[in-house]
């Protein structure tokens, strides 16, 4: 199965030349480290950065240059900085081609819950609400099960929703799946993972059609 970097590497293969991409907090931020050769993409962060690069090497961090998750980042030549109003104008104006988000739960109809955990203090939904309401192409990066071993790919989300019927694809440590009418369609298996492993870890309806290839990350 994949680790967090493996999930990010697989998602990076979904990038296309010329894309403007918003990276959410957590696993999605790692995607900037794995841009395929031969393409150019612009990474946008909702705190007001366009042109994010990979994470800095140890000792080269600049505490004034951060992403929405307050992690230090690098910037590419030509990068720009602006206020949150302009950042959300980009998002709400649908100028972002691809949004990559983490999630705590995804339903088989494409609903996403990624902002509140019962019993824990949270600052609020943040920009996720705008991202899921405005984006036409959303990929979720997450582990297939939670720490208790229970599925995070559900028939219906149990946590408060961030968005409804908005998720297009999901990349987990076990699989690449597409949200279609009727459930989660399995597209690829993580290296060393069987269809039965994925079926056992998926509460929602898993659709398996034909031969399911193993992921190629490189």
TrEMBL record:
GO terms for molecular function: CoA-transferase activity. Keywords: Transferase. InterPro entries: 3-oxoacid_CoA-transf_B (IPR012791), CoA_trans_fam_I (IPR004165), CoA_transf_AS (IPR004164), NagB/RpiA_transferase-like (IPR037171). Pfam families: CoA_trans. It comes from the Bacteria. Belongs to the 3-oxoacid CoA-transferase subunit B family. PANTHER family: KETOACID-COENZYME A TRANSFERASE, SUCCINYL-COA:3-KETOACID COENZYME A TRANSFERASE SUBUNIT B-RELATED. This is 3-oxoacid CoA-transferase subunit B. It comes from Aquimarina spongiae.
């Amino acid at each position: 199965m994949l680790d967090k970097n493996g999930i990010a590497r697989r998602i990076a293969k979904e990038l296309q030349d010329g894309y403007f991409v918003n990276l959410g907090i957590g696993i999605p931020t790692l995607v900037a480290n794995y841009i395929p050769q031969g393409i150019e993409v612009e990474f946008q962060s909702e705190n007001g950065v366009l042109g994010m690069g990979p994470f800095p090497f140890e000792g080269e961090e600049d505490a004034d240059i951060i992403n929405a998750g307050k992690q230090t980042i690098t910037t590419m030549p030509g990068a720009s900085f602006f206020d949150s109003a302009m950042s959300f104008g980009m998002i709400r104006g649908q100028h972002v081609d691809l949004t990559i988000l983490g999630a705590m739960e995804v339903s088989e109809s494409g609903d996403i819950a990624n902002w509140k955990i019962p019993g824990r203090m949270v600052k609020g939904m943040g920009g996720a609400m705008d991202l899921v309401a405005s984006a036409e192409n959303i990929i979720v990066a997450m582990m297939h099960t939670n720490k208790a071993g229970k599925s995070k790919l559900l028939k219906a989300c149990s946590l408060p929703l961030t968005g409804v019927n908005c998720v297009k694809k999901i990349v987990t440590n076990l699989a690449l799946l597409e949200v279609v009418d009727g459930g989660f369609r399995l597209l690829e298996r993580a290296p060393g993972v069987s269809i039965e492993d994925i079926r056992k870890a998926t509460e929602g309806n898993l659709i398996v059609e034909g031969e399911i290839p193993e992921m190629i990350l490189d």
